[in-house]
């Protein structure tokens, strides 16, 4: 087990390196001068002097390997450069905003799993019945409605029409815990909806699949009670593929937070990214993309480890 | 030995590197180790052994479907590793294979006729205008109905599919066929149909065959010479009648004793049953691989791997205590 | 195929609208009409006008144009590249794999929306950057799916057969591999289109996708959010259009999946899980009084057991797979149930324990069983709870494939303790001790340590021993073993057979029903044999006499087909077993029988008793041997 975790962690480190390199290459190997591309707005050509200045600031005149060394070195020392817009260090902004984004991601994942697994299991056990149909309909709907549509409609109905909740925003937990949670639940619940649908559908399919397995028949042949069979031999085993899907959906979940933070004015990392891309603030974009991708790799590592806990066959075969 | 054998395996080995631990102490898992075997024209050599003994890997290597990590395969004296590309594919015409799984061995999406015709087309066996007639002839040879060519594999039962697979193998008019457990997946009565078919073809077409199976009775019935494998090595090789009639290697004896027989009055009993299980090929015992389960094993057996030594003319045994059984385990 | 009609026709309508938009009588999608901004639906503007007074319906249709051409364009481009990479990587493996599939997978290290944002940062917003971003994004998806499918297909023997034929590798890839990886590919395309629409609209919503004034659904929602107070309907239309389109593609994907790969969608549910309060056993044919009184000392006596497909309204419902099966097992006796696949031997043993698959049901017969407390019950009339109390306690089963029959995620010891605790009121610790003892008894070395192992850590033979330990944990009166040695090698098979014989010596009261297709195993382990063919018992009697002189031509042929002895040719039974539902009117074996006469084909033969203790279902039993 420990060996497996070490192995997965090393893989994660390798992946982080890939991400860092990939971002570097994307920026430096695209055709054209990035400085020129950055400064040109539409068809107006950029001022040559400004381009030269920017090239110097970005270190684009250095040989490629030196730039790469700077890039890696910066990341290792936590120096992600300074923003074009306000000259503030990018790392500082990220440190401040990262916990808020994590909060949304973790809450959303918890909501999705806590409601998705029971819903899917129930649908599977009652396959073909009305409960199954209702859950299947709801999950199709949830799966097909993009998060920003859900978010906008939530605001329209609950904030605009019913005036039950504010239309978004952020209050630190220390200032007003209740309001913080309320404001957190709106973006988190919105992102969770699609993930809930994925988890519910996967749980349903997986439980149905496990019900056909020989070992469930063995459990029945042992004369075990229904509840015990369902809990120990069906749901327990069915969770393994569900977890795989959860890992695969992490990327979508992270993408979703970009949109909901924007919709609900949640001052997290993802919303910050949108304004950075909009302003084409290179150092900011690179810094945020890198941090979120590392987060992505890390979340997948967590999934891998839980996976090994659930499935004893994994840690041996790697 | 009469001149060059049709197919000859020379000190053939096949290993899979397996990593143990994080940074890999590499350890070789030998699927087949140091197997030399000559198949004369017209012979049927049966290969038996339990799962994991390397018999299937041997069969695939002989056909060049898997590459050996050491050793050579010679077809009519030509080393296969020296032929490549188009010429190698041309040589494939003369060696064909029949597989175990009658469901996996046929493409579910193409008609039976098209699959039999593949070999005819690839090697230009007959002119394009005669392909239909040739397919019909092959279908008739293996005893299927004429309309079979237009149908898809799923419309046939396991036994019929195995006949189709035989027809496909025969299409290129091969000299040599490797049959890898061709009847293991079939029901008893159907198994008899296919065994009879193979026996007929061998007689009528003069085919040379490498017949791989775990069922001793089937191998004994079909083959002229028998090869017994254990943990990647040949432990006994000789004329079928002799190997199964009075086995000289204790493993062959144990295998015979373990195989239930319809005509024996023996009842299942914990006595006389070979104890223990196959050792892991990743960590084989020193010396003779069978010594951990062998009733005759003594200290000398652990010292070195015994040679596959001549026991009688045309009969070789890999055991320092080779000889007729002390307590006969032979059912017949 | 009928399932596809709904999503395909909706998509056809959407695509037609999009393609025909320029020739339809629509308003100009960019014509502003500031005085009528936020006007509600009217005859001229069915869905109203937006914040610049532009016609919403027109913009909705033109928005679909942008969304769909970006989504479909990039989905197809990615499909083309990804499939090529996946096929080549999967078929050739090795270095090719690294440069195709693994290289493409690097992209997956970034969350999808982030990668798109990066591309937009570099190239700016717009139509082509979006296509590029999405193609880049989805290529590895296809490469993975096709790669996985390729690996699966590649391992199949028909691909190996092509290689053995000497076919050119590229021809194998195109002609043999491609058609076989097509189904998952088609499903993936519809999935990717839906997902690409989501990403495209998301980017446009953020103002980083399609550039105004080109209409796009994402942009429309973005604009409508600002005007939520004045015109909430403006938010509704594009939202509905967007969700509806994605829903249709998802529906298409689901339906395609179920059409292309019917196995991927499990039949559904487990009836046994549902507690049916009012579950009167289905009306059955009255128990045969004679059969009941025939052998009062029998442990289990089955009469007239009939099993049929039981899917209300389903294909082939009512088709009988097992017909009128009857036999008896006495205390301490081993009865072998022998037959080929499709003979109904396994179904019979499952029916006794109430473990038949949901699609099958018992439609007739009785199985009289004498319980430990002396009470006589009909096993076929029990509901799930009635069966549950007996299963694992008095009646237990050993299945063929122990690696599938043991739960892979629980330790062997726990799986064994579980069955002890389910039926006996002893403490956990005591049950654990007993479990270890049992493992030792069934011949697992180092039982203490092995109890903590997971099934995959044991060898095949040890797994079957553990399975047997579970079955005999509560000293059952009746053990049903379904092909327990079929998957094992000869030396291990011999060990398991010896183990079962040994357990019977320990517990001489135990009756055993041993289901097998192997006549030689029957000879070795059974006292009596019951031969089944096409869902019926054709012959029954003591093993020695049946094998010495079979009284049914099927039994005789089976014995003759075993390649023992010196016969040059084996006895092969011509033809195949008739399919259920296509049984011949007379004796079910008549079409394949050498002895068949006209009478055999007219009516099913009755049962004869050639000598005491033997039965046969053949008119010509006197002449068989």
From TrEMBL, chain A:
It is found in: Cell membrane. InterPro entries: BPD_transp_1_N (IPR045621), MetI-like (IPR000515), MetI-like_sf (IPR035906). This is ABC transporter permease. Keywords: Cell membrane, Membrane, Transmembrane, Transmembrane helix, Transport. The lineage of its organism: Bacteria, Pseudomonadati, Pseudomonadota, Alphaproteobacteria, Hyphomicrobiales. Residues 98-307 form the ABC transmembrane type-1 domain. Its main location: membrane. It is a multi-pass membrane protein. It comes from Jiella avicenniae. The chain crosses the membrane at residues 7-30, 104-125, 137-160, 180-199, 234-265, 285-310.
Automatic annotation (TrEMBL), chain B:
The keyword Transport applies. Gene3D superfamilies: P-loop containing nucleotide triphosphate hydrolases. It is found in: Cell inner membrane. Residues 7-256 form the ABC transporter domain. The keyword Repeat does not apply. GO terms for cellular component: plasma membrane. One of its GO terms (biological process) is peptide transport. Its main location: membrane. CDD domains: ABC_NikE_OppD_transporters. It is a peripheral membrane protein. One of its GO terms (molecular function) is ATP hydrolysis activity. Keywords: ATP-binding, Nucleotide-binding, Transport. It comes from the Bacteria. It holds the Pfam family oligo_HPY. Belongs to the ABC transporter superfamily. NCBIfam families: oligo_HPY (TIGR01727). This is ATP-binding cassette domain-containing protein. It comes from Jiella avicenniae.
UniProtKB/TrEMBL annotation, chain C:
The keyword Membrane applies. It is found in: Cell inner membrane; Cell membrane. Residues 64-253 form the ABC transmembrane type-1 domain. GO terms for cellular component: plasma membrane. It is a peripheral membrane protein; Multi-pass membrane protein. GO terms for molecular function: ATP binding; ATP hydrolysis activity. Its main location: membrane. PROSITE patterns: ABC_TM1, ABC_TRANSPORTER_1, ABC_TRANSPORTER_2. Residues 300-559 form the ABC transporter domain. Keywords: ATP-binding, Cell membrane, Membrane, Nucleotide-binding, Transmembrane, Transmembrane helix, Transport. GO terms for biological process: peptide transport; transmembrane transport. The chain crosses the membrane at residues 68-92, 113-138, 185-211, 232-252. It comes from the Bacteria. SUPFAM superfamilies: MetI-like, P-loop containing nucleoside triphosphate hydrolases. NCBIfam families: oligo_HPY. Belongs to the ABC transporter superfamily. This is Dipeptide/oligopeptide/nickel ABC transporter permease/ATP-binding protein. It comes from Jiella avicenniae.
């Amino acid at each position: 087990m420990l060996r497996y975790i070490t192995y997965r962690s090393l893989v994660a480190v390798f992946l982080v390196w890939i991400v860092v390199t990939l971002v570097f290459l994307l920026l430096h190997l695209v055709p054209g001068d990035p400085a020129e591309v950055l400064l040109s707005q539409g068809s107006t050509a950029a001022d040559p002097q400004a381009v030269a200045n920017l090239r110097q600031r970005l270190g684009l005149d250095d040989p490629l390997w030196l730039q790469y060394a700077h890039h890696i070195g910066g990341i290792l020392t936590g120096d992600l450069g300074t923003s074009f817009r306000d000259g503030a260090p990018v790392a500082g902004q990220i440190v401040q905003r990262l916990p808020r984004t994590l909060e949304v991601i973790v809450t959303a994942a918890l909501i999705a799993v806590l409601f998705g697994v029971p819903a899917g299991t129930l649908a599977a056990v009652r396959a073909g019945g009305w409960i199954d149909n209702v859950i299947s309909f709801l999950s199709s709907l949830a799966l097909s409605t993009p998060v920003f549509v859900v978010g906008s409609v939530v605001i329209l109905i609950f904030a605009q029409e019913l005036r039950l909740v504010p239309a978004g925003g952020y209050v630190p937990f220390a200032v007003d815990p209740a309001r913080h949670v309320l404001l957190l639940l709106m973006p988190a619940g919105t992102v969770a909806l699609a993930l809930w649908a994925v988890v519910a559908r996967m749980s349903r399919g997986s439980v149905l699949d496990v019900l056909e397995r020989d070992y469930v028949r063995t459990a029945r042949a042992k004369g075990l009670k229904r509840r015990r069979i369902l809990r120990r031999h069906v749901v327990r085993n069915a969770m393994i593929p569900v977890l795989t899907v959860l890992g695969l959906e992490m990327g979508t979940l992270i993408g979703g937070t970009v949109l909901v933070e924007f919709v609900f004015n949640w001052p997290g990392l993802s919303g910050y990214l949108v304004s950075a891309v909009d302003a084409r603030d290179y150092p900011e974009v690179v810094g945020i993309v890198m941090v979120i991708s590392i987060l992505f790799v890390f979340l997948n590592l967590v999934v891998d480890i839980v996976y090994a806990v659930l499935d004893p066959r994994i840690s041996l075969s790697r | 030995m009469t001149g060059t054998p049709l197919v000859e395996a020379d000190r053939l080995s096949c290993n899979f590197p397996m990593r143990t631990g994080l940074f890999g102490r590499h350890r070789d898992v030998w699927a087949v180790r140091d197997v030399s075997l000559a198949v004369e024209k017209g012979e049927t050599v049966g290969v038996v052994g339990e799962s994991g003994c390397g018999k299937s890997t041997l069969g695939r290597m002989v056909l060049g479907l898997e590459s050996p990590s050491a050793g050579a395969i010679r077809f009519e004296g030509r080393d296969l590793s020296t032929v490549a590309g188009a010429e190698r594919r041309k040589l494939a015409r003369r060696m064909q294979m029949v597989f175990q799984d009658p469901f996996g061995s046929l493409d579910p999406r193409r008609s039976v006729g098209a699959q039999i015709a593949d070999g005819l087309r690839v090697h230009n066996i007959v002119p394009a205008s005669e392909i239909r007639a040739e397919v019909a002839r092959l279908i008739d040879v293996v005893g299927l109905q004429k309309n079979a060519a237009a149908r898809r594999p799923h419309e046939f039962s396991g036994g019929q599919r195995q006949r189709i697979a035989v027809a496909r193998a025969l299409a290129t008019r091969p000299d040599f066929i490797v049959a890898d457990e061709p009847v293991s997946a079939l029901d008893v009565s159907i198994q008899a149909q296919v065994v009879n078919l193979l026996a007929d073809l061998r007689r009528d077409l003069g085919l040379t065959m490498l017949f791989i199976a775990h069922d001793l009775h089937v191998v004994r019935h079909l083959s002229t010479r028998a090869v017994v494998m254990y943990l990647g090595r040949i432990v006994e090789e000789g004329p079928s009648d002799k190997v199964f009639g009075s086995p000289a290697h204790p493993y062959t004896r144990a295998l015979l004793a373990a195989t239930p027989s319809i005509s024996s009055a023996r009842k299942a009993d914990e006595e006389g049953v070979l104890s223990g299980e196959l050792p892991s090929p990743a960590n084989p015992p020193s010396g003779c691989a069978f010594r951990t389960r062998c009733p005759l094993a003594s200290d000398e057996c652990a010292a070195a791997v015994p040679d596959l030594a001549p026991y009688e003319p045309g009969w070789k045994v890999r055991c320092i205590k080779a000889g007729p059984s002390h307590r006969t385990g032979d059912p017949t | 195929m009928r399932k596809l009609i709904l999503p395909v026709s909706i998509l056809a309508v959407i695509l037609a609208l999009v393609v025909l938009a320029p020739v339809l009588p629509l308003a100009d999608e960019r014509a502003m009409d500031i005085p009528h901004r936020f006007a509600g639906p009217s005859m001229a503007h069915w869905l109203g006008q937006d914040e610049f007074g532009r016609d919403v319906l027109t913009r909705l249709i033109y928005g679909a144009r942008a969304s769909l051409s970006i989504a479909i364009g990039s989905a197809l481009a990615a499909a083309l590249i990804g499939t090529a990479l996946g096929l080549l990587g999967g078929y050739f493996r090795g270095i090719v794999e690294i440069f195709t599939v693994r290289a493409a997978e690097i992209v997956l290290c970034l969350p999808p929306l982030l990668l798109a944002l990066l591309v937009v940062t570099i190239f700016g917003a717009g139509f082509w950057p979006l296509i590029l971003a999405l193609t880049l994004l989805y290529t590895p998806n296809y490469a993975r799916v096709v790669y996985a499918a390729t690996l699966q297909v590649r391992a199949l023997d028909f691909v190996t057969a092509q290689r053995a034929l000497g076919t050119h590798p590229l021809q194998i890839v195109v002609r043999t591999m491609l058609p076989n990886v097509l189904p998952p590919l088609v499903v993936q395309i519809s999935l990717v289109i839906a997902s690409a629409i989501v990403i495209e609209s998301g980017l446009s919503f953020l103002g980083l996708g399609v550039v105004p004034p080109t209409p796009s659904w994402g942009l429309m929602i973005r604009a409508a959010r600002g005007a939520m107070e004045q015109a909430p309907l403006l938010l509704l239309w594009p939202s509905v259009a967007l969700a509806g389109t994605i829903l249709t593609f998802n529906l298409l994907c689901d339906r395609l999946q179920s059409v292309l790969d019917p196995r991927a969608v499990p039949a559904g549910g487990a009836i046994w899980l549902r507690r049916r309060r009012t579950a009167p056993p289905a009306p059955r044919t009255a128990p045969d009084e004679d059969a009941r009184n025939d052998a009062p000392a029998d442990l289990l006596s089955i009469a007239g057991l009939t099993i049929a497909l039981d899917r209300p309204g389903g294909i082939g419902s009512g088709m009988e797979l097992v017909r009128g099966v009857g036999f008896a097992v006495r205390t301490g006796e081993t009865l072998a149930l022998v037959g080929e696949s499709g003979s109904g031997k396994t179904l019979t043993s499952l029916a006794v324990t109430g473990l038949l698959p949901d699609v099958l049901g018992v439609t007739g017969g009785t199985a009289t069983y004498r319980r430990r407390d002396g009470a006589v019950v009909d096993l076929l009339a029990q509901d799930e709870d009635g069966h549950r109390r007996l299963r694992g306690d008095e009646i237990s089963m050993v299945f063929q494939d122990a690696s599938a029959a043991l739960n892979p995620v629980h330790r062997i010891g726990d799986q064994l303790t579980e069955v002890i605790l389910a039926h006996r009121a002893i403490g956990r610790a005591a049950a654990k001790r007993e479990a270890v003892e049992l493992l030792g008894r069934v011949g697992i070395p180092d039982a203490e340590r092995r109890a903590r192992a997971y099934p995959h850590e044991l060898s095949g033979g040890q797994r079957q021993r553990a399975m047997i330990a579970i079955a005999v944990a509560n000293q059952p009166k009746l053990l049903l073993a379904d092909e327990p040695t079929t998957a094992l090698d000869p030396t291990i098979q011999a060990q398991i057979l010896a183990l079962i014989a040994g357990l019977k010596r320990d517990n001489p009261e135990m009756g055993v029903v041993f289901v097998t297709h192997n006549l030689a195993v029957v000879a070795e382990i059974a006292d009596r044999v019951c031969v089944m063919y096409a869902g019926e018992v054709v012959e029954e009697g003591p093993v020695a006499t049946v094998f010495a002189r079979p009284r049914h031509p099927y039994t005789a042929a089976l014995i003759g087909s075993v390649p023992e002895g010196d016969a040059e040719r084996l006895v092969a039974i011509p033809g195949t077993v008739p399919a259920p539902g296509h049984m011949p009117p007379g004796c079910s074996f008549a079409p394949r029988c050498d002895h068949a006469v006209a009478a055999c084909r007219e009516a099913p033969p009755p049962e004869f008793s050639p000598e005491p203790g033997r039965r046969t279902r053949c008119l010509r039993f006197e002449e068989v041997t």
